[in-house]
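User: what does the whole thing look like in 3D?
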Amino acid sequence: MIDVISSGLFSTIQDLGRYNYECFGVPRSGNMDKFSGLLCNRILKNKDNCGVMEITMTGPKLKFRINTYICISGADMSPKINENHIKMDSVHKIKKGEILSFGKLNFGYRSYLAVKGGFLTKKILDSRSMFYPVTNEQKIKKGDEIYINSFNEDENFIQNFSYNYNNHFEQKIIYAYKGPEYCKLSQEQIKLLTSMEFTISNSNNRMAYQLNELLKNNIKPIITSLVLTGTVQLTPSGKLIILMRDNQTCGGYPRILQLNEESVNRLSQKHSGKKIKFQIIDY
Amino acid sequence: MNFSLKYLRFGENSILIEWPEAIQKKILMDIIQFKCSIEKNHNVESLKSSYNSLLIEFKDLKNFNKKIENLRKLYFDKKSAEIPNFYRWTIPVCYEEEFGIDLKRLEKKLELKKDQIISIHNSSNYIVYNIGFVPGFLYLGGLNKKIHFPRKESPLQNVLKGSVGIGGSQTGIYPQNSPGGWNIIGNSPINLFDPNNKPPCIIKSGDQVCFERISLEEHSKIKIDIELNKFKLKKIKYD
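Assistant: Here's the predicted 3D structure for the full assembly of 522 residues, as structure tokens:
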């Protein structure tokens, strides 16, 4: 068991998400940055679908009531066990009574905490990913008790687990395929879309990231159609909206671009004020 | 009948199939037929549909052209797959003043009496074209033109679960408390979405719904019966 002493800004339990319920309007959810979510599980020799804690911008304070192993990947929020700073992307033993806490955000936006065997919250519609109203709670809160298994025996983890973030946190370029309504854009719009720098607005969350700069638009809305995580929509007022993991399953705005998976992960590590630039890639 | 379809690649692993741009029952039924056929014949990651499109996500899409060719063939042979039974569900709605908070305004602007608005709302069968926006929200087609009414300019922060509203040419039911800009004319005590059930919605695309007026007392009674697991929504099979 873990006691949540404080929750941080927005912490949730996530796994690989919820499939097969999209026809009822249930978003897929799951780790915003799939790369980092998988990495901490793999370093701990967990299964890929084990529940991890996704931590946004500021970290929680967690008291462990059992012995186990942990690993933290993604954004660096200066994690420490009691008063000792610990390394990112590596296995740490944590003992009963010890406290895991976080400090300054050094880079990135979302940190992933894996525990050996995963967080054992209840699965709803085949997934632990928190999303209200599928799960009762939208996020972890102070006073929560989260069930985990204890691990006492020494385990041999792979030393120097090999991974490569590949400019995951720094790179400005976001790769995107042409979306279904890309062909309706004017030459002028395409030129601006691919040459301008866009700024992530204050309105950015697990559902969608909106961008500050507008792209003048007169393409009409479409009959409510289907969207994916990573779909870039253009509203009648010229706002660009990039759909993220908790995205609605359908929408009526023209879908002008479609991010690749790697770029969705990369965007998840950026917060408001950060700049991005679109680069169109071919199928 | 076969439509002329467009096949588009959408993202790394998905194919989007588009029907002509129209909201029609025969298009919806054709989409559902094709969807059932794909489910039966292909191993896909996910499959979802809307008014005039179908989105298929594959585990990988290395052989795009080959996949399209197979889908085209399958479309002409789609009748071989069985489609599910469709039902018309009767949804109880209480239109009393404490729920129908915008009815007075509609009476004035539409120049209709409250009872007339309700009876028009009650006299159509609505087709479920899609479920989305939020879990369990039904996109319904078939609202009588006489009671079309524009959305509110600024949405309410909290619309009560079960609220029945009119937004432009659409009517619908809010499955949870949520923000919303539709004009609220009543409230239904039923649960449209229950994540503890599989499937989480009993109503599906292709089904129909109709609305039945109930009193405040009946509304409270149904709420209690739902709590006690004693309530069953009325349905009849239709073709």
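In plain terms: Chain B touches chain A at residues 8-12, 14, 16, 18, 21-23, 45-55, 57, 64, 130-137, 139, 175-176, 193, 195-196, 198-201, 204-205 (CB under 8 Å). The longest strand of chain B covers residues 86-94.
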